[in-house]
């Protein structure tokens, strides 16, 4: 793939990918997911996923942050580390990167030059069930090939959707990590916590340890059963945390985590004390999980290395403050519980209140999410999360009208066109000199960043 005009190699790859079905844009049929195509691809490419050690991370919320934290800890220990997450906020390179940012364009180019010809030369009849690769499968394949071309020691790989049938699940990782489970993507993963947990548990590999965040009892029971059936050591970080304290500030989240000494758990010489670039208080639990999993798999990691790694970990769109006067906060919280924690942190930092700009995908529990805006916000603007995600503005409107009924102190604005909603919400918050929270969807966060002209990594200091 030679360079054309001023496009990077990844932008050219993105153009090439447009010919393949993108389930992030077009909702798939329930039976659309299978691992057979991805298994065929990695076999054809001489198993790039086996060229590095890996952590595989699944969950309903926090999996991107935990992935970034583990990757940053490993990088701090001087390993070569790749990080695969989704979705990207602004730039495609956010998906396939190092803990410090993108690889070189030359390296992406080498990987693209491996992937494109071998994919284009596939005889359709040779594909399992004649099924063409999807957009996400080819992005995942590029990530694995990029990491191989880079000669990395480790990769931390976040699942896209679910786990059991996710394209990333061709990995045989050193460990699986599962963040908290909530009802999400119920049309694909199931309509109960147990069913969703079973799909996430699909990343647990025989004999390989699995590390879990604090879970609802019904989810934990599923993980313990699957781990037991596969002979995989199971550890829930909640069991081994002696104490976990945190204090949020606009310049970061101070965290202190102390772990019990147990026969099967990692041995920490002392408590972990660090300051995260992530601000949301839920990140304290994510940091504890990342530290616990990393130390368990790589026992030689020192407390100092873990602390530095955690302090340098960062991803865009996770309670990201992009302006100070008045502040604008971007947070991609898209489940009821994660949104609840985001709003709790917001109210502690700005007790005088603020404005909010909200949008969510059609499959989210907007009724529960809307209840969280009943206090602390004087204006709520509801819109759609751009044109890259299916949404239901009528359902959003109904949920917020019901939640804010009788609240004369809160102005509800419904503007279906996000192109109008974003500048309108920004202007209203500025006129009132109040903090604006943009939340509910990473896709809305991305559109807000584009409107503000902000690019990956350009945080205001």
Characterization of this structure:
The protein has 461 residues and is α/β, with parallel strands linked by helices. The chain has two domains: 9-312, Mur-like, catalytic domain (UDP-N-acetylmuramoyl-L-alanine:D-glutamate ligase, 3-Layer(aba) Sandwich), CATH 3.40.1190.10; 320-452, Protein-Tyrosine Phosphatase, Chain A (Alpha-Beta Complex). 38% of the residues lie in helices and 18% in strands. It has 16 helices and 17 strands. Strands 4-3-2-5-1-6-7-8 form an eight-stranded mixed beta sheet, sandwiched between helices. A six-stranded mixed beta sheet has the order 12-13-17-14-15-16, with helices on both faces. α3 (63-76) crosses α10. 50% of the residues are buried. The model is unreliable at 1-5 and 455-461 (pLDDT under 50).
Question: What structural keywords apply?
Answer:
disordered C terminus; disordered N terminus; single chain; 16 helices; alpha/beta; 461 residues; Protein-Tyrosine Phosphatase, Chain A
């Amino acid at each position: 793939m030679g360079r054309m005009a001023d496009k990077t190699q990844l932008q050219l790859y993105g153009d090439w990918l447009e010919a393949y079905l993108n389930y992030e844009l077009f909702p798939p049929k329930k039976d659309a997911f299978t691992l057979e195509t991805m298994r065929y691809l990695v076999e054809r490419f001489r198993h790039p996923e086996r060229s590095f050690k890996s952590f595989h991370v699944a969950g309903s919320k926090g999996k991107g942050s935990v992935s970034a934290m583990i990757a940053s800890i490993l990088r701090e220990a001087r390993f070569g580390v790749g990080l695969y997450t989704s979705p990207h906020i602004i730039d495609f390179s956010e998906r396939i990167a190092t803990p410090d940012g993108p690889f070189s364009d030359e390296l992406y180019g080498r990987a693209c030059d491996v992937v494109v010809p071998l994919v284009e030369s596939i005889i359709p009849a040779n594909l399992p069930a004649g099924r063409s690769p999807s957009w996400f499968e080819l992005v995942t394949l590029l990530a694995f090939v990029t990491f191989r071309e880079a000669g990395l020691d480790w990769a931390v790989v976040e699942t896209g959707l679910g786990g059991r049938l996710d394209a990333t699940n061709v990995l045989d990782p050193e460990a699986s990590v599962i963040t908290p489970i909530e009802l999400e993507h119920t049309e694909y993963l199931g309509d109960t916590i147990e069913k969703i947990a079973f799909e996430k548990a699909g990343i647990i590999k025989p004999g390989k340890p699995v590390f879990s965040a604090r879970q609802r009892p019904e989810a934990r029971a599923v993980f313990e059963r699957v781990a037991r059936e596969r002979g995989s050591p199971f550890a829930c970080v909640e069991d081994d945390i002696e104490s976990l304290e945190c204090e949020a500030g606009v310049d970061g989240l101070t965290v202190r985590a102390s772990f019990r000494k147990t026969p099967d758990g990692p041995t920490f010489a002392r408590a972990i004390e660090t300051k995260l670039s992530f601000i949301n208080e839920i990140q304290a639990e994510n940091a504890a999980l990342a530290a616990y999993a990393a130390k368990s798999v790589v026992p030689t990691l020192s407390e100092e290395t873990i602390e530095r790694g955690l302090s340098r970990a960062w991803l865009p769109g996770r309670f990201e403050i992009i302006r100070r006067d008045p502040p604008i906060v971007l947070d991609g919280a898209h489940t009821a519980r994660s949104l609840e924690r985001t709003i709790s942190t917001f109210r502690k930092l700005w007790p005088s209140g603020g404005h909010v700009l909200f949008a969510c995908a059609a499959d989210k529990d907007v009724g529960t999410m809307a209840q969280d805006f009943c206090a602390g916000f004087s204006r709520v603007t509801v819109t759609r999360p751009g044109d890259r995600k299916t949404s239901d503005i009528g359902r959003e409107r109904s949920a917020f009208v019901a939640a804010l009924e009788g609240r004369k102190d809160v102005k509800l604005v419904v503007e279906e066109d996000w192109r109008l909603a974003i500048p309108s919400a920004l202007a209203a918050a500025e006129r009132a000199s109040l903090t604006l929270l943009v939340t509910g969807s990473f896709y809305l966060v991305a559109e807000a960043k584009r409107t503000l002209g902000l690019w990956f990594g350009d945080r205001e200091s």
